[in-house]
Amino acid sequence: AQSVTQLGSHVSVSEGALVLLRCNYSSSVPPYLFWYVQYPNQGLQLLLKYTTGATLVKGINGFEAEFKKSETSFHLTKPSAHMSDAAEYFCAVSYADRDDKIIFGKGTRLHILP
Amino acid sequence: NAGVTQTPKFQVLKTGQSMTLQCAQDMNHNSMYWYRQDPGMGLRLIYYSASEGTTDKGEVPNGYNVSRLNKREFSLRLESAAPSQTSVYFCASSEPTLGTFKQYFGPGTRLLVL
Q: Looking at beta carbons, which residues of chain A come within 8 Å of B92?
């Protein structure tokens, strides 16, 4: 069965430091990959996605992710963390052609230390 | 353009009571979804509807029913609430024909079952 694994349910980084949130998927076919962000008491917002083409994908708020097929990974990075980045981040995959069903990881809560 | 709206925002139920969570979208999307979010579990799909008049079970459908009343509205019903259904419920919508694979989420309904 397809699945998504996010390493680390909580990650803490200092303000200005590199943010790295890890995501691995299990699949024998190329997936569509997403990162969603959830700020406190809000719904999820799409941060970025990979469907086809360039494997380095840039999203909103300075985040980017790289699809590495050989490693079955789609890690999320940001060069310099900001206090406003504190949120929960969800990696997700989809394999559907027309149906937009997606499978979410369990989430990683990002804490920014002053 | 309100996007995806959900009512109510909060609800407290006693075990055995019933209630319906309402969801509406104004983006003319064909697909709509109901998820529940629990700590450490990520988002789990309860039911989805690929189009008006069709519904299908997701990962955790037991104890729930849904109705796709029209293209705009997708309701989730708990016939006999149980404490295990204490959760945050999110509705989402998407349009598969656009090929964007982007889901738009509502703000959520926090449900407590005593």
A: 43-44
